[in-house]
């Protein structure tokens, strides 16, 4: 199963913010949308970074509540690991595990076209495993 298949089911909508927005604004977006990260883009929609709940907690831990007034660009991850639509769920999980992060922007021809979370890939991996199990059981029943 590929990332493209996940996006075909969950949708390609990506919530983003511009780098001058504050951490407080991002926390409101995360809470309102019940998500764990947003991409940071320029005015033309080009990917500049990603900011997650973890980034915000680290900023608060370092600077205290005043950090909520900081620009997103101050605390975002700017060296973003991405995936392409043709990468498999296994490759995607591997990237997430190696980097110890839970969200990956998806690029198509260098343009942002989606975002997958660890929850997305686990869901599809479990479905894949269930299909494999059923195929094995069916094979055993027919033998």
TrEMBL record:
CDD domains, sorted: CBS_pair_bac_euk
Name the record gives this protein: Putative signal-transduction protein with CBS domains
Top-level division of the source organism's lineage: Bacteria
Lineage: Bacteria, Pseudomonadati, Pseudomonadota, Alphaproteobacteria, Hyphomicrobiales
PANTHER family registered for this protein in UniProt: CBS DOMAIN-CONTAINING PROTEIN (PTHR43080:SF2), CBS DOMAIN-CONTAINING PROTEIN CBSX3, MITOCHONDRIAL (PTHR43080)
Cited InterPro entries: CBS_dom, CBS_dom_sf, CBSX3_CBS_dom, Diverse_CBS-Domain
Keyword Heme in record: no
Domain CBS residue range list: 8-68, 76-132
Pfam families: CBS
Keywords from the named record: CBS domain
